């Protein structure tokens, strides 16, 4: 018992980590293809504990879309283990590149009904062939490829051959405008029609 605390130094005697005293900097983060590591804040009462001195942190399932774990384990004067979870999500309109192909999320469902649009490629000036499948896997989740975006491949001067998968329903305006070498196109879909093909989508191809 101390009548006054002025001038008295208090040293932590340690203890066991508890869930209510562990917080995450974010309960939900966006998928970006890399491991996500929201930082935990760990306290003993009002005292903030130090990582790698009072506790260690490890992560599980923190790269793909879904629920990830943060495991905080006591160290030194502290014991016990606390596990926290956070969500990794991919929102509508997010832009993601997979194998040099640029996608835009048009439907964010993660049950196989999500959809994406192809918006271009990172090697546009050099690419000679393009194979757009029916689906693409992003962060461990399968998305249907349902459209080609506006001007997605416009001006791809070396592009000669294109294949489109079975889920394509829309091709945007100027999608292949002035692809002057494009002479071979295979379209597998049964859902595409002229009124779902934008103006000048194929103008200027070979």
Features:
206 residues; 6-stranded mixed beta sheet; 18 strands; rod-shaped
**Order of helical and strand elements:** EEEEEEEEEEEEEEEEEE
Strand runs, count: 18
Give the N-to-C terminal Cα separation. 90 Å
* Tally of separate helices: 0
Helix content: under 10%
What structural class do you assign from the helix and strand content? mainly beta
Envelope shape:
rod-shaped
**Biggest sheet, in brief?**
6 strands, mixed
Mean pLDDT: 94
Low-pLDDT windows of residues: none
- Gyration radius from CA atoms, angstroms: 26 Å
Strand content: 35-45%
Describe this structure in words.
The protein is mostly beta strands and about 210 residues long. About 0% of the residues lie in helices and about 40% in strands. It contains no helices and 18 strands. It has strands spanning about 15, 20-25, 30, 40-45, 45-50, 55-60, 65-75, 80, 80-90, 95-100, 100-105, 115-120, 130, 135-140, 140-150, 160-165, 170, 185. Strands 10, 11, 12, 14, 15 and 17 form a 6-stranded mixed sheet that branches. A 4-stranded mixed sheet has the order 3-9-7-6, with no helix packed on it. Strands 2-4-5 form a 3-stranded antiparallel sheet, with no helix packed on it. A hairpin with a 2-residue loop joins β14 (about 135-140) and β15 (about 140-150). The chain is rod-shaped, with a radius of gyration of 26 Å. The N and C termini lie far apart (about 90 Å). The mean pLDDT is about 95.
């Amino acid at each position: 018992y101390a009548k006054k605390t002025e001038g008295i130094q208090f040293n932590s005697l340690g203890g066991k980590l508890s869930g209510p005293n562990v917080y995450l900097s974010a309960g939900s983060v966006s998928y970006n293809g890399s491991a996500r590591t929201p930082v935990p804040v760990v306290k003993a009462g009002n005292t903030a504990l130090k990582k790698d001195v009072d506790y260690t942190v490890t992560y599980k399932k923190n790269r793909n879309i879904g629920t990830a774990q943060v495991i905080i384990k006591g160290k030194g004067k502290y014991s016990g283990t606390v596990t926290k979870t956070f969500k990794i999500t991919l929102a509508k309109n997010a832009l993601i590149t997979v194998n040099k192909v640029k996608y835009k999320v048009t439907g964010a469902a993660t049950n196989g009904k999500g959809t994406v649009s192809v918006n271009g490629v990172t090697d546009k000036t050099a690419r000679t062939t393009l194979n757009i499948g029916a689906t693409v896997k992003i962060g461990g989740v399968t998305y249907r490829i349902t459209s080609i975006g506006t001007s997605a491949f416009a001006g791809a001067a070396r592009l000669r051959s294109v294949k489109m998968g079975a889920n394509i329903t829309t091709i945007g305006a100027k999608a292949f405008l002035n692809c002057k070498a494009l002479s071979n196109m295979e379209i597998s879909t049964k859902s595409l029609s002229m009124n779902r093909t934008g103006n000048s989508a194929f103008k200027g191809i070979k």
